[in-house]
Each structure stands twice: as C-alpha cells, then as structure tokens.
C-alpha cells in the first residue's frame, strides 16, 4: 500500500536498528479511514478463503482486525493478555515473549469463541520474530479451528518471523515490508 508507505515515512521514528515507533498510526493513535483501507485490503486478499472469524492479540492489532472483520462480515476475536494466575479450564493459553516490552505475557482465548468449524484469519500490526504469531497459531491449532493465513500491516522482513512462517507453508500477507532500518533510514523491501 503506497499510501501506508508514505505515512510511515512521514510519521515513524526509528528507535534502533530493529525497532520502529509507529504510535501515530498503529500503536497509540489510529487513523480510521486509513485503517479501513487496510481492512478492505486484507478482506480482498482473503476473499476466497471462506473466513468465519478474524482474530488478533490485544491491543494494537484490534483496529485493523476490526476493519477487516467488518468488511468480511464476520466476528472479531481478540486474544487477551492474561494477568491472572487462576487456571481457567475454558481458556486456551500460550506464553509469548514480548518483543517491545522484554517480558513474557500469557495470551488467552476462551474456547467458546474459537470452534473447530472456524476458518480463521489472523491480523496483527507488526511482525518481528514471530513469537506473538506462533503463540496465537498454537491456540488456533489447539482449538481445532483452521488457520487460513495472516494479514500483517508492517512486516520487518530483516527479522525472521514472517519468513519462518512462510517456510512452514503458512500464508502471510503484509501491506508493507521493511527490509532495513540501518543508518537511521527506513528501506522498504
Ligand atoms: P514478534 O512477536 O513478531 O517478535 O513481535 C510482534 C509484536 O511486537 C507486535 O504485535 C508489535 O506490537 C510488537 N513489535 C515488534 N516490533 C516492533 C517495532 O519495531 N515497533 C513497535 N512499535 N512494535 C513492535
């Protein structure tokens, strides 16, 4: 998406050679019209896939996942970041390292919102090492639902996440791919 590249160039700041700050359009403030365009693009890419549910992880994936779900006419489920140690027999839980926070968090989806007959599209804001994606994919597998693929707004293709998933024959569609942040410069793939 050319418009998204332009917005990234004008609004993103580079925090280090592997971290981009995208608060102005993904992680703090949301542009509803641009977000709807992203959702329509993911819905177009997965139009033939008989998606029954869109899934994401709270919180930054929710706006674009909502836009996708609205366009496809299906529910949106967001995995919650669990703060309790109380075991819930109805919850599917995975522990994932957080790329930006440097901690591990537990993500959780209730079984009632992910059924074996579901065909799921996983939407997220950014993919780096792929830990969040792998955690959610394990939850989807354990629920018995089928994963149709991933829709990622910004793929940092110099990190291994998206590549590793594609090597496992998982469909990953990214709206923008960043090849490098070296030298304080954003280079698109
Ligand atoms: P992963 O699990 O793929 O390593 O990281 C994915 C998650 O970490 C994303 O959902 C995103 O919120 C966060 N993340 C990864 N890299 C970046 C980055 O460069 N900038 C920001 N703002 N968040 C990131």
UniProtKB/TrEMBL annotation:
Pathway membership: Purine metabolism; XMP biosynthesis via salvage pathway; XMP from xanthine: step 1/1
Record: residues binding 5-phospho-alpha-D-ribose 1-diphosphate: 128-132
TM ranges: none
Location within or outside the cell: Cytoplasm
Domain Phosphoribosyltransferase: 44-157
Chief site of localization: cytoplasm
EC numbers: 2.4.2.22
Alphabetized UniProt keyword annotations: Cytoplasm, Glycosyltransferase, Purine salvage, Transferase
Family: Belongs to the purine/pyrimidine phosphoribosyltransferase family. Xpt subfamily.
Assembly notes: Homodimer.
NCBIfam families xref list: PRK09219.1, XPRTase
HAMAP family on file: XPRTase
Protein's UniProt name: Xanthine phosphoribosyltransferase
Source organism phylogeny: Bacteria, Bacillati, Bacillota, Bacilli, Bacillales
Gene (UniProt): xpt
């Amino acid at each position: 998406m050319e418009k998204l590249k332009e917005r990234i160039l004008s609004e993103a700041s580079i925090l280090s050679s592997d971290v981009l700050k995208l608060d102005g359009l993904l992680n703090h403030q949301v542009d509803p019209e641009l977000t709807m365009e992203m959702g329509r693009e993911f819905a177009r890419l997965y139009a033939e896939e008989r998606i029954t549910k869109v899934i994401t992880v709270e919180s930054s994936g929710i706006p674009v996942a909502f836009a996708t779900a609205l366009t496809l006419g299906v529910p949106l489920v967001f995995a919650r970041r669990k703060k309790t140690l109380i075991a819930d027999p109805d919850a599917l839980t995975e522990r994932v390292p957080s790329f930006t926070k440097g901690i591990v968090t537990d993500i959780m989806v209730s079984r009632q919102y992910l059924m074996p007959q579901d065909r799921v599209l996983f939407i997220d804001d950014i993919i780096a090492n792929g830990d969040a994606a792998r955690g959610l994919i394990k939850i989807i597998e354990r629920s018995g639902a089928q994963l149709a693929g991933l829709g990622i707004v910004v793929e940092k293709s110099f990190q291994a996440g998206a590549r590793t998933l594609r090597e496992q024959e998982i469909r990953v569609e990214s709206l923008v791919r960043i090849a490098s942040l070296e030298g304080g410069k954003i280079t698109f793939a």
